[in-house]
Design brief:
heterodimer, A: about 240 residues, alpha/beta, globular, B: about 375 residues, mainly alpha, MetI-like fold, 16 helices
Chain lengths: ~240, ~375
Amino acid sequence: MESIIKVNKLNKWYGDFHALVDVELNVSLGEKIVICGPSGSGKSTMIRCLNRLEEHQEGSIIVDDIELTHDIKNIEAVRSEVGMVFQHFNLFPHMTVLENCMFALRWVRKMPEKEAKEVAMQFLKRVYIDIHANKFPGQLSGGQQQRVAIARALCMKPRVMLFDEPTSALDPEMVSEVLDTMVELAEEGMTMLCVTHEMGFAKKIADRVIFMDAGRIVEEADPDSFFANPQSQRGKDFLSQILQH
Amino acid sequence: MATHKTLSKVNLTPPESRARPQNKMTLLQKARQRYFSNLLNSFLTLSVIIAFILILPPLLQWAIFDAVFIGSTQEACEVAAGACWLPIAARFDLFVYGFYPETETWRVNLVFAASFFTLVVLVWRRISMKLKLVYIVAFLPALIFVLLYGGVFGLDSVSSNKFGGLIITIFLGLIGSILSLPLGIFLALGRRSTRPVIRIFCVSVIELFRAMPMITWLFMGALVLQLFLPNGMEVDKMIRVVFILVLVSAASKAEIIRAGLQAIPVGQFEASAALGVGYWRTMSMVIMPQVLKVSIPAMLNSFIGMFKDTSLVAIIGLLDFLSVGMATMNSDEWGKYGIEVYIFVAMIYFVILFTISRFSLTLEKQLETGH
């Protein structure tokens, strides 16, 4: 299968703290990967390295045949092919929902306004939020805002979607609307890397679960065998922690 | 499970909401509650009332009832017991237009009108923020320059040493403040740059202009700057002063904008970057609109400070509004009526700046409810 992301011996430090240690990762086109692990284990840092929101010090990251280096042109090229959804949505509060989605189409894809509007509306429809297109983000609920953020990323027609704990800042009753959107996206064949603790979601869509601890990938397995029978002690401890309730 | 049973309670008819009870009070009761609720409050209220009674009637007597409004020479004031407002009437043109050619004063009036119209534009809801910025940062300064200096579009050229009075005050206050905005933005961004050369340069400019008194800089602009220019090249004194005012004001604006930048969540930068949007586009379309919005109160505050500081240009020999007043007091004819002149000058400053401050409050409220 065609490989879309190749991470080789990735190392990252924050000051003297070794945040990522020899991380190796290969993602094939169409693959869905769920990344979990205790807080501070480097999950977010790792996926933020994939579009260079974080800089790595050693190793190589190749996304869609482009290597991420200091070259800003390469970085921007990768970023326009990789969509990202954040924990806190990060919508632009001074733009309407529609303008949020049109923004990158207009200024990165250089699309004429009319065409950008059509594309944006098409994706807003897809996340069932087109009726709110002319509202400002502040007028929407958290779940709605996160769906707009997903639409905003999808508008760029990315080859890969990165999700950084997309449901952990949501009120409990809004989690499922966002997860449903993500499941639909997965079923359409999108390549996805998702940092999440939603085990039901992981079991439903993930081809592979990656368990990280202390900046290292500790365990990789298909979701059924990982959740049923983690091989590592740290994996067992982690699962017993989150399944307690 | 027995405990659960005792805890279980279902309210099938939840209480309905109703109107808030009205608290009806007569005007007298309200006044008593507000101003005479306890001994200290009553004392304060009475003190203020007594102070008014003591001060107001004599003041009105002096400023209005016993004052002289009509006449053209000083003799008319000799016998009056109250204020003499004649110096203002006699020198009104000097106060407003300086030595601007009499036939061209309509141009000055147009500048005043455009300046006032700017306030209207600022709070006009139907004009987009972008258009407002274009009007204020590009159109207004160009218009003011063209109208006051002339020399283009068939307007007679007027030398800046004919400027005086309110012209100078408004010209320097507005142009200095407006042109310092873009420079302040670049200085603030430069201060956060990852490139050390840019950062050090911007920090130096900001700190240098912030940490030295404006008068020092005005002296340098008026006298020292000329020494560094190539021989024979003479820059208009007014332009040199504008140059200094812009730098001083940009330094303080840069700090205001820096504070605004720090208030923007890092997620905004990241979201824009993650979409592949470049630095300048991110700054101009995502970050700055949010920064400027939160900085408007501080900016207008800095503008008001700047407007008053223009009176310092008297020290390098420009005849601004306050200087015209001082010149009037130093004249043989009106030398005795300094208090009246000062009051007039202060009132005009107050009216202009109070108006601006009211408009800025309106603008702030609009932006709060904007989205």
